[in-house]
Amino acid sequence: MRNRNAPTRVVLNAAIILLTLLILMPFLWFVSMGFKSNDDIMAGSSSALFVPTLANYASLMTRGFIRPFGNSLEASLTSTLLSLVIGVPGAYALARAPLRLERPLSLLILASRMVPPIAFTIPYFLVYRYAGLLDTITGLVLIYMTFNLSLVIWLMRTFFESTPRSLEEAAWIDGASLWLTFRRVVLPLCTPAVMTTGVLCFIFSWNDFFFALTLTREQAMTAPVEVVNFMNYQGWEWGKIAASGTLILLPVFAFSLLMRRFLVQGMTAGAVKG
To answer: Which of 48, 91, 99, 267 has minimal Cβ neighbours within 10 Å of its Cβ?
Structure first.
């Protein structure tokens, strides 16, 4: 039986390896560009062999890329944390409260996430100008939190509805309050879902380009916007673009890698209702 399955396993393993290489090839090519000189990059496919250089990364440090990178990190982490702190209890209340407008309210929350960002540009710009929030980290945090809240509430509501209410009723019989039941019983069961939702919120905030371009200038400029500065009238600095893009990929990759166990559990937590 094992001998019969051996060829099948070899074919499957070869197919998996080939598919993995095809998926990773664009990323590996992009990362390698960050270690090439402009001459090697412009040589194209004929320069498969090249001498690695750190000149592009050194140029990023001297041109002040650290500040936009830190702005992106601060705005993304802060908005993600606030979205979870506010959105998770809100999703629990929406899943458990006997409201007649629960379904229309849920659809309204989801619809707010689907509206194109450009529709909010002018209102946000005018409000931020009068409130003094233009070119500030606080302004970015508020707008990211606004859009992430709908995502948190919609996703977490589904997970809370999949948790058995009998556990909460048992805690109430033992004298636990609603807040204590939520914190000690429900929230631990949904920890993978919370982590998964947090990763998604972080990715959406980190990758934002449109709002950061519109609402920031210099002080609160984020990393994705800073990359545009390498595309000027003198030409596109491909090495620096690739190096900065690689640095932008690192936090998302590291964050997802740290939360990979929760991501797998969170993606399947609401699949079957208990």
So the answer is: 48
